Amino acid sequence: MQIPELARPSVCMRDRGRVEEIIQAMQRAGPSTLQVISDFDMTLTRFSYNGKRCPTCHNILDNRKLISEECKQKLKDLLNVYYPIESDVGRSVEEKLPLMVEWWTKAHALLVQQKIQKDLLALVVRESDARLREGYRAFFDRLQDHDVPLLIFSAGVGDVLEEVIRQAGVFHPNVKVFSNYMDFDESGALRAFKGELIHIYNKREGALLNAAHFRELWARRNVLLLGDSLGDLTMADGVHSLANILKIGYLNDKVEERKESYLRAYDIVLERDETMDVANGILWHITRPEQ
Ligand SMILES: Nc1ccn([C@@H]2O[C@H](COP(=O)(O)O)[C@@H](O)[C@H]2O)c(=O)n1
């Protein structure tokens, strides 16, 4: 199978033969049977650039134009407490889950207190250091050209995420987003977050709540899943009569500690890889006619 990107040193696989079988099955079935489900922060966006951490959707809101210095400090304190828990391999999901709910709930309450202005979101996204991974345009455009639906399933902030992809010029009609959306009052000030909270460990519930979306895509039984945390593995749990799923996991941080668990969970693990090259290589293979 000719996918040169799979030979890169950043690529690790538990079972290369199995990966090749899945990709071949997807290619035989063709793009009309494919859907892509991807996480956003640190999966479609870069983890770092020039040695500096890139922001998540929540971190993009950390801008003086939107929030006070005091709120900024409180959000930073929360990050310092909860991010090490999120990425701790020594704790079980059961142990982490209530703590993640606590983090999101406290952070959202702080953001609501700040009455964030809707009309400033585009500006703070433009001013931020958020960057989609290298090769993102080819990825989004290829999916659009082949009418393959892309579901972005994020525990970040939907309004911010949409603005990032809109400004990058890749918010194509085939893109659908499940995320935490802001609710603004008539003056355009943030008053709450809409619907059920999505955090990194309840994406299965989020998927099941959106049954109508997956019903519409009933014929797309092959799934390419992209994630960066073990919580992202359940994003495809709403897919009907799944035939094949290929799970690609970005291992951005605490690489040595987490490699084993990622290799057990994901079919392909990308170690400190800031590009979309592997996903693009696979996508090109699947969407080109069989030879
Ligand atoms: N207050 C918060 C809460 C969460 N995060 C990070 O957002 C990421 C979730 O988004 P996905 O697109 O990856 O689902 C998660 O990894 C948290 O680290 C944050 O920065 N601030």
TrEMBL record:
Which named protein is this? Answer: 5'-nucleotidase
The entry describes its oligomerization and partners as: Monomer.
Please name the top-level EC class of this enzyme.
hydrolase
| Keywords assigned | Cytoplasm, Hydrolase, Magnesium, Metal-binding, Nucleotide metabolism, Nucleotide-binding
Q: Which Pfam families match?
A: UMPH-1
List the source organism: Aldrovandia affinis
Q: What does this protein do?
A: Specifically hydrolyzes 7-methylguanosine monophosphate (m(7)GMP) to 7-methylguanosine and inorganic phosphate. The specific activity for m(7)GMP may protect cells against undesired salvage of m(7)GMP and its incorporation into nucleic acids. Also has weak activity for CMP. UMP and purine nucleotides are poor substrates.
Cite the GO molecular-function annotations of the record: 5'-nucleotidase activity; magnesium ion binding; nucleotide binding
One Gene Ontology cellular component term attached to this UniProt record is:
cytoplasm
Keyword Ribosomal protein assigned to the entry: answer is: no
Write out the GO biological process terms: nucleotide metabolic process
Family matches, as InterPro entries: HAD-like_sf, HAD_sf, Pyrimidine_nucleotidase_eu
